[in-house]
Amino acid sequence: MSAPRITGHAKLAGVIGHPVEHSLSPVLHNYWLARHGIDGAYVPLPVVPGSFTTAVRGLQASGFRGANVTIPHKEAAFALADEVETQARIAGSVNTLVFRDDGTIHGSSTDGFGYLASLEAESVSLESLSVRGPALLLGAGGAARSIATSLMEKGMSVIFANRTNERATTLANELAQTWCAHMQSPAPALSTLDWDAWESSLGSMSLLVNTTSLGMQGGPAPEWTPDLSHAAETLVVSDIVYVPRETQLLRCAAARGLKAVGGLGMLLHQARPGFQAWFGAETEVDDATVAHILAVLKNR
Ligand SMILES: NC(=O)c1ccc[n+]([C@@H]2O[C@H](COP(=O)([O-])OP(=O)(O)OC[C@H]3O[C@@H](n4cnc5c(N)ncnc54)[C@H](OP(=O)(O)O)[C@@H]3O)[C@@H](O)[C@H]2O)c1
């Protein structure tokens, strides 16, 4: 594959964060740019807290087409965007900004899209899941918020179990309120479970999603090994942790013969809408993309 072509007309985008050096987005977008032969570049943009608005105005003035936004700027991005798509409004955070020719900024949240696309890529049908039972989300942080919103949009009931139970209750209440404020239809059922009770409740669930950092290499408990013995045979188990690619949770699921979906797909698919908006081409997450990112991860 040839190196990306960068001329004076190059289409420009980047990822704003602090820190931002760990982000895989520059590797991914520049790989896709080269594959599509697009005259463009995607760069890391380290922006300290408090300087977000100044940085975005500078990017707009410099001809950038937009940016991804990561920690700690997602709420600032939500506040700055002139127009925010419905799912991001419900989730309360924005990770993708598109700068329009008229100077306005469009904000969206693509994590939920990426999560659903990763299930679809593994032939998991949400329609059949929602008939079988609710989704159980472990965790109540930013990722849980985005994934829950996208599952709700597909009509699924969602149950949260979080180590800090009050955080789960607050999240369920907030999502119910923002749903009512932005959607015409009643919110799907949202509830919480005690952290100690989630394993024994698996028999009535159709989907289990780990959105905590448990099982992550270098995280609080890399060897975390949950008990899936109560799961129904049809339970789909997904883990959004992607380092390691096969977590202990996924191994336990496979050992029980359950469908298991890892977190790398979500990471890659969530980048597709931004790529299309900034660089004007639809891209795909194929085996070559996965192999490229895995090779980069291996050398980190
Ligand atoms: N695949 C992807 O594209 C993708 C995208 C986003 C995030 N992620 C991954 O998802 C994970 C969460 O991200 P986030 O942004 O939602 O983080 P976050 O907002 O900081 O939330 C972290 C969650 O993990 C829980 N947690 C942390 N340590 C724990 C422990 N020892 N025992 C039980 N629960 C624990 C927290 O519970 P408390 O509330 O009790 O602290 C909280 O619910 C990270 O591993 C991140 O890398 C993956």
Q: What is the count of distinct domains?
A: 2
Order of the strands making up the biggest sheet? 2-1-3-5-6-4
Shape: globular
Given as residue ranges, the uncertain stretches (5+ residues, pLDDT < 50) are none
DSSP strand tally:
12
What share of residues is helical? 25-40%
Secondary-structure element pattern, one letter each? EHEHEHEHEEHHEHEHEEEHEHHH
Strand content: 15-25%
| CATH domain class of the largest domain | Alpha Beta
Which structural category fits the helices and strands? alpha/beta
CATH topology of the largest domain: Rossmann fold
> Compounds present?
NADP nicotinamide-adenine-dinucleotide phosphate
SS field, number of helical segments: 12
Largest sheet: 6 strands, mixed
EC number: 1.1.1.25
GO molecular function, one term: shikimate 3-dehydrogenase (NADP+) activity
Function: Involved in the biosynthesis of the chorismate, which leads to the biosynthesis of aromatic amino acids. Catalyzes the reversible NADPH linked reduction of 3-dehydroshikimate (DHSA) to yield shikimate (SA).
Enzyme class: oxidoreductase
Describe the structure concisely for a colleague:
This protein is of the alpha/beta class and 300 residues long. It has 2 domains: 11-109 and 271-298, Rossmann fold, CATH 3.40.50.10860; 113-265, Rossmann fold, CATH 3.40.50.720. It has helices spanning 25-36, 52-61, 74-80, 86-91, 111-121, 126-132, 142-153, 165-182, 248-255, 264-269, 272-279, 287-298; strands at residues 11-17, 40-46, 66-69, 83-84, 96-99, 105-108, 135-138, 158-161, 190-193, 207-210, 236-239, 259-261.
